[in-house]
Amino acid sequence: MTVLPANLRAAIATALALTVLGGVAAEAAEGTRADLVNRRVLRVCADPANVPFSSDDPAKPGFENKIAELVAEELGGIPVEYTWFPQATGFIRRTLFAKACDLVIGYAQGDEMVLNTNHYYRSAYALVYKKGGELDGVVQLSDDRLKGKRIGVIAGTPPATVLNRVGLMTSARPYHLFVDRRYDSPTETMLKDLRAGEIDVGILWGPNAGYFASQDGKDDLAVVPLLKEGRYPPMAFRITMGVRQADTRWKRELNDIIKTRQGEIDQVLLDFKVPIIDENDQQITSARTSQ
User: Fold this and answer.
1) pLDDT, tens only, 3-50
2) Do residues 75 and 107 both lie within one domain?
3) In the chain, how long is the greatest CA-to-CA distance?
4) ∠ CA(14), CA(20), CA(22), 5° rounding?
């Protein structure tokens, strides 16, 4: 056995003590941060009028409402409590940062404003056009068949950049991005214009496209995810749950829930006609097996 000098043994003992104390302090600090999360109810920040994502109408919930119920069930069947606020400028600051709630169910991965969980789905912007016409088979914006067509696009979104790049912006009809969904729905207006023949094709975020194109039992519109436009600007995005930056323990707990309930989450999304895209850009048409 190697015998260390007394002064070196003392130094190592001190270092070990500081390491242990530091670990205990860090764990205690993390526990304090985690305690900011209310464990008696699942407090969710959400837009009250943003179907298909969220709604304050129990008779017409969005898929984020249903996913919140799955999370609450996994946490032991606790109730879900909402803080409602329009999802526009100031949404995170007035809800999550104000500690009025502990969770945003849908948030794009990579935004540094919140701490992201693992993503629970990936979707893409999509073309929407009438089935059975000359646009059947169009899968990207550089297709010559789109030249001269009246194209509806939400202003300020990534597809608008691509339209400009491929020379289609002159025939585009912009629709507002930032609106109060209690009073205006650009997606529904765009699809109404498409069915009325005022535009020839629309470009929408996948969940909006899939849901609203299938409303009222209609099956007249094709919804085609844009997966061949290159990496910039991206057309596909991973969607996570968002928590406060300090709530690392809460994030890990949510990651475990997503992993456990992934199959059920998939089924909720599919029921709402959300085009789910895997990491190989293939569309998922049936719920994956939870792990």
Assistant:
1) 334 433 343 343 333 333 344 343 334 444 444 798 899 999 999 999
2) yes
3) 89
4) 100
